[in-house]
Amino acid sequence: MANVSAYATQNKNADLKPFDIERREVKDDDVQIEIEYCGVCHSDIHVARNDWGNTEYPVVPGHEIVGRVTEVGSNVAHFNEGDLVGVGCMVDSCQTCASCKEDLEQYCENGAVMTYNGPDEHLGGHTFGGYSERMVVDKEFVLNIPENIDTKAAAPLLCAGITTWSPLSHWNVGKGDKVGIIGLGGLGHMGVKFADALGAEVVMITRSPEKADDAKRLGADDVLISTDDEQIKEHTGSFDFLLNTIPVGHDMNPYVKLLRRDGTMVLVGAIELLDKLHGGGLIMGRKRIAGSVIGGIKETQEMLDFCGEHNITCDVEMIDIQNINEAYERVVNADVKYRFVIDMKSLKS
Amino acid sequence: MANVSAYATQNKNADLKPFDIERREVKDDDVQIEIEYCGVCHSDIHVARNDWGNTEYPVVPGHEIVGRVTEVGSNVAHFNEGDLVGVGCMVDSCQTCASCKEDLEQYCENGAVMTYNGPDEHLGGHTFGGYSERMVVDKEFVLNIPENIDTKAAAPLLCAGITTWSPLSHWNVGKGDKVGIIGLGGLGHMGVKFADALGAEVVMITRSPEKADDAKRLGADDVLISTDDEQIKEHTGSFDFLLNTIPVGHDMNPYVKLLRRDGTMVLVGAIELLDKLHGGGLIMGRKRIAGSVIGGIKETQEMLDFCGEHNITCDVEMIDIQNINEAYERVVNADVKYRFVIDMKSLKS
């Protein structure tokens, strides 16, 4: 069977380089996609560099994938050749557990299969992601991308988009709510756009005063500099909802103070140990801290449809695949507004 | 004006001793109560000993108060002389803020007045609690105690009871839920009774194997010894709701693991810094940690009515006021099953 061109790394100290992976045959339930664009998520770097200690090499990263359908299996009714489609962080799940039956495949009790570095149920070994010319995916994990939005800027919706959309949707954020988005990066900039489009009063909460103008351009009504005690005091007890996108361990106590009674802060970034939390901060206002990871397939389609209706995409900087290693360095240094997207045509050059 | 006999301490190093406090006149909205029983809450000790650094001396502790109405003001329609009534942790609130209007006086945005050591709006100075022969309280903060339950064992319902009832009620715990009560003390033993009476499957979670029999007697279906890794593993991801009554800082991570997807753990005890929490524990299962403090007056009455219907009271050990200092030592050493109640007749002996 012919191989597929991809970009991969063989070990945690090596750069990403051209690589051939085995081609997966298109079975009855499968959709084959020619990849046009793939976003660069910080997780790509964590896995490529084995930061989480569970990487299997070679790694082909990439889970913000947009492309065109080139072939479908005999059981595939909802996709046709030429359709503009997307693939996000998952490519399989058991489809039988309580979470899957509730359209929450991201919480599959038997473990959803991640788009890369997951246990491949079809070829054995592990899955390969979207830094690749094409991929074959089970139809249940393929999304329709609205044709009216900028295709290349749609790619990061599949991870950065759904990760911020899901908690805003789950907690019914909307008109009348004062919402704080903590941290202005790949996730945070989508949080601002979505919360604004949902009709909430949106405050960007950041340590960096120089981000204020951009936050307002993205849809924030106000900016709160979290290192300014006076500003924190002014907003104390006023937020209905906080979306906390900080990707590392941090002190949550100042943010808990910002919540009003019965307010909720949802963590989507910090898969790490957080600093000591004061129990009184939650107890004295019946406040809540929750977590949320990506979103289910049904919810992801709802998010994409919403983006089509409201013309929402990500702010992206385009790169060729040959510049991926430099892009990784810039992501690590938070030097991108707000997501790199690889033009996969460059793979053929 | 005549004084009222009470038991108080003048400073944090002194024992509680007989003391006279000024008598509050019965105004139009007031109810005068002859106190029959008063529970001993750990907070009494914290305040008497200035553990929280905000004590004003002399302190008359006590906020689990049951007695008979002896006089009512001209605006008091719902209470009559001879009624069996209770007073809990609060004796005043603004009655005008959003929280008060939602019957959540415990979250009064202008600060509810605590039953002792709070700013007294009527006499100036600070409020005096229930280790006393009588008290005068605004009618809005007086509760009806069902006549059919054991009066002396009803006193701790006013704090230990409502503190555990409120989160179980707010989060709609009931039939079909697997509920864990963490910690078997004054709060935990009421958590077990309420969760059982609400129809939940109840698991007592404790470090102490010797508490297993008593937990089952109180209504627990099962007991999970939290220091036993095998037992923790067996119950991982299975709880809909955890009521965490641990009164000090601790490691919440093992308990978060016990929650199922979308499960909630509510803290009611630890008004302290907690150990470092792992963000991934919440994120990977959309889990929630919340806080809760006592309950509103309406909710407290609902709890008392429920206790009347289900004949629920606290497990108490009766003491005379003269033994209060010894009782304090035993509370500090967790040597009481599960609440001391002072027979206030002893004040006159």
Structural topology:
Two copies of one chain form a homodimer.
Chain A: E1 3-8, E2 17-22, E3 30-40, H1 42-48, E4 65-72, E5 84-87, E6 90-92, H2 98-101, E7 113-114, E8 134-138, E9 143-144, H3 151-154, H4 160-170, E10 178-182, H5 186-197, E11 201-206, H6 212-218, E12 222-225, H7 229-235, E13 239-244, H8 253-258, E14 259-267, H9 279-283, E15 288-291, H10 297-310, E16 316-320, H11 324-332, E17 339-343
Parallel strand pairs in A: 10-11, 10-13, 11-12, 13-14, 14-15, 16-17
Antiparallel strand pairs in A: 1-2, 3-4, 3-8, 3-17, 4-5, 5-9, 6-7
Helix pairs in contact in A: 4-5
Q: Tell me the CATH superfamily of the largest domain in chain A.
A: Medium-chain alcohol dehydrogenases, catalytic domain
Measured by residues with Cβ under 8 Å of the partner chain's Cβ, the largest interface is:
A-B, 35 and 35 residues
Uncertain regions of chain A: pLDDT < 50 for 5+ in a row?
none
Largest sheet of chain A: 7 strands, mixed
- What would you call the structural class of chain A? alpha/beta
Number of domains of chain A: 2
Number of strands of chain A: 17
Mean pLDDT of chain A: 96
Q: Report the C-alpha radius of gyration of chain A, rounded.
A: 20 Å
What is the chains' assembly state?
homodimer
Approximately what portion of the residues of chain A adopt beta-strand conformation? 25-35%
Order of helices and strands of chain A: EEEHEEEHEEEHHEHEHEHEHEHEHEHE
Helix content of chain A: 10-25%
Query: Rough shape of chain A?
Result: globular
Secondary structure tally, helices of chain A: 11
CATH class of the largest domain in chain A: Alpha Beta
